[in-house]
Specification:
The complex is a heterodimer.
Chain A lengths: L1 H33 L3 E2 L4 E2 L5 H8 L1 H35 L3 H12 L6 H6 L2 H4 L4 H8 L14 H25 L3 H9 L4 H30 L2 H6 L7 H10 L3 H23 L9
Antiparallel strand pairs in A: 1-2
Helix pairs in contact in A: 1-13, 3-8, 3-10, 8-10, 9-10, 10-13, 12-13
Chain B lengths: L6 H27 L18 H7 L7 H31 L5 H13 L2 H14 L6 H26 L4 H8 L4 H30 L14 H11 L4 H31 L1
Classes of the chains: A mainly alpha, B mainly alpha.
């Protein structure tokens, strides 16, 4: 019976396994393999050398690019967590009618199904030299000269990250909060806990799985991003993803592969640390 | 729970309103600016209002191959949607019995979700290069996008089956229904509306996908790639007009799926 069960399971899962095998597993192996290959100016050839890694790991650029990317990840993560938690908390505990709750939740999630690139482009009229932000600030006399650092800067990159990724935090945290047994909160209140104590001693600990899942999403999305950084910094800021995409643009596939392997390992280490706090499969 | 609303409620409501403005404000701004007059620029003030920039979109020579890329994105989105629904459903069914090695498959799916997108783009690009197959949106592009949509599809299936009442199935089996009959007449009708959700993810995530398609679409661009190319060369509100049209299209698609979902759940009652 178990053999039949196993066979049936694998049979049903086989399309999934085949697709992910061919377009995920084998490509990752290909990257690992090519990261040891050699390259000329316009092509690459099979070899087994550590040159790509040696160059990558001894370059001072690598360290500064990683530090910059970690900075983006840390700031984006804290802002997404702060905003995402507050919004989820408001929806889960302050909205009392279910239809309203669903409606407001949908308002928060609909942008997920629209284009990221368009959402980035739409910051131009806000942040540009003659944009709404600068005009408003000048109008009220807060500044005399337009601020140059609003668009095409690290500020713009982080703003866009928060804009794009906060909903990855809201959804899992909201999901966790909706599973909290309301009688626990009643009990805490009856036992004399203040609102703040309920938040820190009941709600936050029980929302931790959602917080962790959201954090994994936000951190990995920022660590691997190349488009947002490129577009919102106007090409002035570097990140690990951008370095890889530049190397791809220059057809330096072995160098890009080595960078990709290091990025993948970094992300996996970060995730394995975060996974210590939560069992994803239990949370669905 | 019916006590008077405290100060915190109003503060949080204000916070939520500001968040929604932050979320949608930019989109509505470019919606407004895409009606810029012919001499208008990328920012306010509006130099009159016109449909000039929308008309511009329909003139082939003004900008790249927008309509060709739109057709490709549509076709690709529909293919990804169908494959995502079928494969996720089968995967979801597979995971209902804890078969040997199922956790390996699970980790593969999670890995697919959290791997930086650029690795898929690079890896699939290299793989096709080594195998000496030309990359094309309908082969390498399709596969790369599936690595993004399938995990979402499967996670939704998990959520569905975790809440699934198995007694209906047991009743059908007791009445002598075969496995296939149970699936066809009991399971699929019950989870049908949820499959609409999977379809929504499949289509929209494919339609807007950029990072995983970048190196794998070949010489014929999908719409997001075309728009991305435009950002470096086009400096007129025609970019906003295109953005507005795509966003409106996305909203229409989302609304369509929601209405379909409502109709199907209502029919179940």
């Amino acid at each position: 019976m178990t053999i039949r069960k196993t066979g049936k399971g694998w049979l049903l899962a086989s399309p999934l396994v085949l697709i992910l095998g061919f377009f995920l597993l084998i490509p990752v192996f290909a990257i690992v393999m090519v990261s040891f290959w050699g390259s000329t100016e316009y092509s690459y050839y099979p070899a087994f050398q550590f040159e790509n890694y040696q160059f990558l790991l001894t370059s001072h650029v690598t360290l500064s690019v990683y530090l910059k990317t970690f900075m983006f990840a840390a700031i984006t993560w804290s802002l997404c967590l702060l905003i995402g938690f507050t919004v989820a908390y408001y929806l889960a505990f302050h909205i009392r009618s279910l239809p309203v709750q669903i409606l407001l939740f949908l308002i928060c999630t609909i942008p997920f199904w629209t284009s990221n690139i368009i959402r980035m482009i739409s910051w131009i009229p806000f942040l540009g030299r003659n944009g709404i932000a600068n005009n408003t600030l000048q109008h009220f006399g807060v500044i005399d000269e337009p601020l140059e650092w609003l668009l095409f800067s690290d500020f713009a990159v982080i703003l866009a990250f928060v804009h794009l990724f906060t909903l990855f935090m809201i959804v899992p945290i909201f999901n966790s909060m909706m599973r909290i047994d309301r009688s626990l909160i009643e009990a805490a209140r009856d036992a004399g806990a203040t609102g703040k104590q309920i938040l820190t001693n009941v709600i936050i600990p029980l929302s931790k799985p959602g917080i962790m899942i959201g954090s994994i999403f936000v951190v990995t999305l920022v660590m691997g991003d190349f488009l947002t950084v490129r577009f919102m910094s106007g090409g002035q800021s570097a990140s690990v993803g951008r370095v890889i995409s530049n190397e791809i643009g220059l057809l330096q596939y072995p160098a890009a592969s080595a960078s990709a392997v290091v990025l993948l390992l970094t992300v996996l280490i970060m995730i394995s640390i975060m996974l210590r706090f939560v069992d994803i499969r239990k949370e669905l | 729970m019916n006590e008077k609303r405290g100060l915190s409620f109003y503060l949080l409501t204000l916070f939520f309103i500001i968040f929604v403005l932050f979320l949608y404000g930019p989109t509505f701004t470019i919606g407004l600016l895409s009606f810029q007059g012919p001499s208008g620029g990328l920012t306010f003030p509006m130099n009159g209002t016109s449909l000039h920039w929308f008309r511009n979109l329909f003139e082939q020579q003004a900008v790249g191959d927008i309509w060709g890329s739109f057709r490709r994105s549509m076709a690709l989105g529909l293919i990804v949607m169908v494959v995502t629904v079928v494969v996720s459903l089968m995967g979801g069914l597979a995971f209902r019995t804890h078969f040997k090695g199922s956790s390996l498959v699970f980790y593969l799916v999670i890995g697919s979700l959290i791997i930086p997108s650029i690795l898929i783009s690079l890896g699939v690009g290299i793989l096709f290069n080594i195998l000496d197959i030309d990359v094309h949106w309908s082969t390498s592009g399709l596969g790369s996008q599936l690595t993004w949509t399938l995990p979402f599809g499967l996670l939704i299936m998990f959520a569905i089956f975790n809440r699934f009442d198995q007694s209906f199935e047991e009743a059908a089996r007791d009445l002598g229904a075969s496995n296939w009959q149970t699936l066809r007449h009991i399971v699929i009708p019950i989870i049908g509306p949820s499959l609409i959700g999977v379809a929504l993810f499949g289509f929209t995530l494919s339609y807007d996908e950029f990072a995983r398609t970048l190196l794998t679409a070949g010489s014929y661009n999908t719409l997001p790639l075309e728009i991305y190319g435009m950002t470096t060369s086009v400096t007129t509100p025609v970019l906003y007009a295109l953005g507005t049209l795509t966003t409106v299209f996305s909203f229409v698609v989302i609304a369509f799926f929601f209405i379909l979902f409502r109709v199907m759940t209502r029919r179940q009652r």
